[in-house]
Amino acid sequence: MRYFWPVPAFVIAIIVLTSCASTNTIQTRKQERAAAYASLPADMKAMVDQGQIKVGMPMDGVYMAWGAPAQVLQSENPAGAATTWLYNGGWIEETRFWARRHLETYYQPRTYVRAEVIFVNGVVQEWRTLPQPEY
User: Fold this and answer.
1) Do the beta carbons of residue 113 and residue 73 sit within 8 Å?
2) For residue range 44-102, what is the model confidence (pLDDT) as tens digits?
3) DSSP state letters, 18-61
């Protein structure tokens, strides 16, 4: 008989995600790219410190504010070559079902594209956030 132990797996996933997130903060990314942070104008430094981005911000500023992208795409548009950074979001989906007279619970991670940032000539041309899909 096969039995799922979802709570320990769920707890482990939370611990792993939390530990990864705590080591990659805005502060650590600013230290990693201290020269790039120092060269930003005051308004962009303030935005980076708050985890925000804006049109005209260089790639280093976006990296410091939001971290590394999940995917990097290359394309071309009328303005020239473009680079798109995709950021993922996610959640844990719970499914319950009856199996052999007892209720089983299964947890499955779900991911989606949470935001995209388009760079032209190394600066943000446009960006947008996307809603979490409803399942």
Assistant:
1) no
2) 999 999 999 999 999 999 999 999 999 999 999 787 899 999 999 998 888 888 888 88
3) HHHHHHS-HHHHHHHTHHHHHHS-HHHHHHHHTT---TT-BHHH
Distances (CA, A) of 78 to 11, 75, 83, 125: 48, 11, 13, 12
Q: Residue ranges of the domains in the chain?
A: 6-129
pLDDT tens per residue, range 100-123: 888 988 898 989 999 999 999 999
Please identify which residue in the block is written with the tokens 């089983």: 104
pTM: 0.75
Distance CA 84, CA 126 (A): 10
Given strand 102-120, what is the order of strands in its sheet? 71-77, 80-99, 102-120, 123-129
Pairing of strands 71-77, 80-99: antiparallel
